[in-house]
Amino acid sequence: MAVAASAQEGLRRYRMYVGGEWSDAASGETFESFDPYTAKPWALIPRGGAEDAARAVEAAHEAFTAGEWPGLHASARGALLRRLGDLIAENAERLADLEVSDNGKLISEMAAQLRYVPQWYYYFGGLADKVEGSVIPIDKPAFNYTKHEPLGVVALITPWNSPLLLLSFKLAPALAAGNTVVIKPSEFTSASTLALMELVEQAGFPKGVVNVITGFGPEVGQPLVEHPKVRKVAFTGSSATGARVYETAARDIKRVSLELGGKSPNIVFDDCRIEDAVKGAVSGIFAATGQTCIAGSRLLVQESLHDEFVDKLVSFASTAKMGNPKAAETQVGPVTNLPQYEKVLSYLDIAKGEGVETVLGGGKATRPECGEGWFVEPTVFTGVENSMRIAQEEVFGPVLAVIPFKDEEEAIEIGNDVVFGLAAGVWTQDIRRALTLADRIQAGTVWINTYRAVSYMSPFGGYKQSGIGRENGQEAIREFMQTKSVWISTASEVPNPFVMR
Ligand code: TXE
Predict the structure, then answer these.
(1) What is the number of structural domains in the chain?
(2) Pick the catalytic residue: 99, 226, 272, 293?
(3) Do 442 and 299 sit in the same domain of this protein?
(4) Taking residues 115-144, what's their average pLDDT?
(5) Ligand 1 atom 12: the closest Cα is on which residue?
(6) Catalytic residue among 58, 259, 377, 479
(7) How far is residue 186's CA from residue 490's CA, in Å, rounded to a whole number?
(8) What is the pLDDT of residues 157-172, one digit of tens each?
(9) Which of 224, 247, 269, 496 has its CA 20 to 30 A from that of 190?
(10) Ligand 1 pocket, 340 CB below 6 A?
């Protein structure tokens, strides 16, 4: 059954997907999803609550413990994942269009992202039957081996900035490992995740293996995290909500992986290739309208290059075309939702109050091509000190704080002087310097002479308060598994039962 079957008051109406069935919220309530370019609602989403969360967890638990899924060989799980990858590839443009309607990011970026997403299902589908245990040459009269088993029901809680990409970081390894899942997409971007369920169904996953419940975090996300049959929560979002999820999960010792915020330093040395570094700075903060956890929101520039670099950056960034995110030529789209828009604008005031200098933007974008949408001018602040709030707190918008530094040592000190540690960029042609920075910057990802590169093959995650656990790469599948040690006695007689062996 199609998800968006009927239109009500001109809005597309979506349904949740639980136990292989499409359903409304138990309460029958819905809420509107807004298009950030028009600032108008375009879809109606079920407003789930505790009852829906419990129903979905029960369906996932049933699918984990009975029926076809638990008996399916890992190779067969892999084949299902690869089929899902093929279906996503066939539907990439349609899914990208839904994402843009919900989050206002550029169609050019979202379409490229959706064309890349199938790789997660191919990679983890291929990995499913390659998770091997070991035989331990044990120091006792016994044969001892290990095996890696799935955890059970896993809750996947996702944000709005790249809904299906960030979901796939979790969904592909979770299923490859043999778990069943309940997905809770962001209330701002439910449509593409629900549309993905049509493809999950077509791929032939047994009922209840993949479930989606929609609604607001405190109403449906919180009871999902609290449910005693959930064994792990994989979360991407804000640090405040991540901490809350962590605390809640601790009550019954659930596992968590958290991918949280950042205030990543993009560090430019005076021996860099300047034109490349300018593009790197722009891609770090203005691509995706700065709404990425890996945004290079602190630009550290060596004093000797500072003025020249800022001039070049401002003249490049000031030509960025703003407007309809569905138009191919647009380079900077709107901010995804009204609370986020208000948050970004409030940080512009905070920064100005801290005494920074505004060298580009600094306010709402009121250009005609921005219409009624939630647009903020690409903004560059200079004269920023690293202790200021604009340098310490995640804005999640097109707002760059430029901080000068003297030498390598000072760049490292400033770079590391935040609570976050998600990513960093380094621009230099000196290989010794590049490797020194790669060693000494406290971040889960360090890019040398590039920025924002992410792959299904390479581990992704945070140091410090940017998170716990790693997504992508071979170790990601183990985040969704637990290890069992099996002992088989080879002793010729049972030894003294009162003494531990
Ligand atoms: O995030 P939330 P929001 C940051 C960014 C942004 C801020 C707020 O700084 O300005 O977060 O965005 C669900 N129990 N990032 O409010 O609240 C929620 O419904 C369980 C960084 O959207 O963290 C959504 O599905 N779940 C980030 C998800 O958590 C709960 C990407 C994330 O929402 C819940 C997005 C609860 N009690 C925003 N409360 C990144 N790291 O990329 C909320 N949720």
Answers:
(1) 2
(2) 293
(3) yes
(4) 98
(5) 238
(6) 259
(7) 54
(8) 999 999 999 999 999 9
(9) 247
(10) yes
Q: 152 Cβ partners below 8 Å, 6+ apart? A: 61, 64, 179, 180, 229, 230, 231, 232
- The verdict on the CB of residue 258 being under 6 Å from ligand 1 is no
For residue 244 and ligand 1, the question of a CB distance below 6 A is answered with yes
Alpha-carbon span 399 to 344, nearest angstrom? 8
* Residues 290 and 341 placed together within one structural domain of the fold: yes
* Ligand 1 atom showing the smallest separation from residue 185 Cα: 25
Residue nearest to atom 14 of ligand 1 (CA): 222
Both 60 and 191 in one domain: the answer is: yes
Per-residue pLDDT tens for 405-423?
999 999 999 999 999 999 9
Q: Angle CA(290)–CA(291)–CA(296) in degrees, nearest 5?
A: 45
- Give the Å distance between the CA of 244 and the centre of ligand 1: 11
Ligand 1 centroid to residue 186 C-alpha, Å: 7
Q: Are 217 and 366 found together in one domain?
A: no
Residue 113 lies in a domain: yes
> How far apart are the CA of 159 and the centre of ligand 1, in A?
6
- State in Å: Cα 258 to ligand 1 middle: 11
| Ligand 1 pocket residue status of 159, Cβ below 6 Å | yes
77-93 residues labelled b (16+ CB within 10 A) or e (exposed): bbbbbbbbbebbbebbe
Helix (H, G, I), strand (E, B) or coil at 133: coil
Residue 4 lies inside a defined structural domain of this protein: no
Residue 496 lies in a domain: no
Q: Are residues 417 and 351 in the same domain?
A: yes
Q: What is the CATH number of the domain that holds 117?
A: 3.40.605.10
Residues 225, 372: one domain? no
User: For residue 211, how far is its CA from the centre of ligand 1 (angstroms)?
Assistant: 20
- Split at pLDDT 50, 70, 90, the class of 201 is very high
CA distance 264 to 297: 6
Is residue 21 predicted with pLDDT exceeding 90?
yes
Same domain, 135 and 275: no
3-state secondary structure of 4: coil
Residue 133: C-alpha distances to residues 144, 148, 220, 467, 481 (Å): 11, 6, 37, 28, 12
Question: Is 149 designated active site?
Answer: no
Task: Report how far apart, in Å, the C-alpha atoms of 13 and of each of 9, 20, 226, 419 are.
Answer: 10, 18, 29, 41
Q: Is the shortest distance between the CB of 293 and ligand 1 below 6 Å?
A: yes
The parent domain of residue 393 ranges over 265-448
Does residue 259 have an active-site annotation? yes
| 8: confidence class by pLDDT, cuts 50, 70, 90 | low
Please check whether residues 244 and 128 belong to one and the same domain: yes
The domain that holds 366 is classified in CATH as: 3.40.309.10
pLDDT band, residue 495 (cuts 50/70/90): confident
Does residue 69 lie within any of the structural domains? yes
